[in-house]
Amino acid sequence: MADLQKFLSIKGVFAAGEFSNDGKLLAFKGEISEEEAAMASKMCAANKAMAEIQTEGFTAMSGQEWAPLKGFALSGPKYSVCVAGNVGVFVKNDEVSFNEVFKALLS
């Protein structure tokens, strides 16, 4: 299990969760409900699967090293989710350093 509490100490992070490859919620902490965390788990797992396909395709077609996937972010006007492995970190766009979040996710 990931140490989700460590992400909550990063400025702008309001929740973090861990999910299985098939989208099941494994754990979460922060300012979201269990229902929201479960829905986000499905979303993160689905987008991770698509991102893996895309990085493999980009690598094959371009000859550049896109794979293996390290992580990705989905962003809306106010909030984003940053994902690496099977952990998603939910952030407020105007408060967070995306570099700091991904550094923590990838360490």
Plain-language structure description:
The chain is of the alpha+beta class and 107 residues long. It has a single domain, classed as Beta-Lactamase (2-Layer Sandwich). Helix content is 38%, strand content 27%. It has three helices and five strands. A five-stranded antiparallel sheet has the order 2-1-5-4-3, sandwiched between helices. The longest helix has 29 residues.
The structural domain count equals 1
Give, in spatial order, the strands making up the sheet with the most strands. Answer: 2-1-5-4-3
Structural class: alpha+beta
Contiguous helical run count:
3
Largest sheet: 5 strands, antiparallel
What does the secondary structure layout of this molecule look like, with pairings?
Layout: H1 5-8, E1 13-19, E2 25-30, H2 34-62, E3 72-75, E4 79-84, E5 87-92, H3 98-105
Antiparallel strand pairs: 1-2, 1-5, 3-4, 4-5
